[in-house]
Amino acid sequence: AQKITQTQPGMFVQEKEAVTLDCTYDTSDPSYGLFWYKQPSSGEMIFLIYQGSYDQQNATEGRYSLNFQKARKSANLVISASQLGDSAMYFCAMRVSTGRRALTFGSGTRLQVQP
Amino acid sequence: NAGVTQTPKFQVLKTGQSMTLQCAQDMNHNSMYWYRQDPGMGLRLIYYSASEGTTDKGEVPNGYNVSRLNKREFSLRLESAAPSQTSVYFCASSEGRGFSGNTIYFGEGSWLTVV
Q1: Residue among A79, A83, A73 at smallest CA distance from A21
Q2: Is a pLDDT exceeding 70 seen at residue B97?
Q3: In this predicted structure, what is the pLDDT of residue B51?
Q4: Best mutation site among B46, B47, B104 for testing chain A: the one with the most A CBs within 10 Å?
Q5: What CA–CA distance (Å, rounded) separates B89 from A47?
Q6: B33 interface with A at CB cutoff 8 Å
Q7: Has residue A98 got a pLDDT over 80?
Q8: How confident is the model at residue B104 (pLDDT cuts 50, 70, 90)?
Q9: What is the rounded distance in angstroms from the CA atom of residue A103 to the CA atom of residue A105?
Q10: CB–CB contact B58 A100 (8 Å)
């Protein structure tokens, strides 16, 4: 079974600063994908970034980057130059190549960006 | 661009009533999913459908039934609603039968309250 752990229930960051949201995962499947989603107060799930287990380089999408450390089974999200609009819940999720192939989610981190 | 459409967006039920949440996607995706999100938690998989004509239980299937009516539509039915089923329900879809990094697309969520 897969498991995603997000140990930071809440985080604060000053506007324009960088912030790292932690995510560790556990799976015995050698082939998997790691995802980050943003959920603003309006409730929708917004896909941010994806990292495959065999990808050699860390994924980047604009101000978002994924710090993938395979040996440590961690996939931390880094948001650079935080903006007020980044205030939201952030979920780390994993999908493996066998079985259900559905996303398994962590419990989330609530990020608040302060002016 | 409709993407994943789920209805209704809001619903209040009395304990013991039944209802069906409807979901449709227009992206020709094979796989569809139903998740629930309880306050302060990540999304948990209720049921999924890897392809038209197949459905399988997820992490929390008790109290629910599903129907994959055709490739586009995947409905979730509560036969006898209970207060423990008060939650936000998300439908999602993704392309491909095998594992890939294909993004999973989410509907906007359905807020269900059982009193």
Answers
A1: A79
A2: no
A3: 87
A4: B104
A5: 17
A6: yes
A7: no
A8: confident
A9: 6
A10: yes
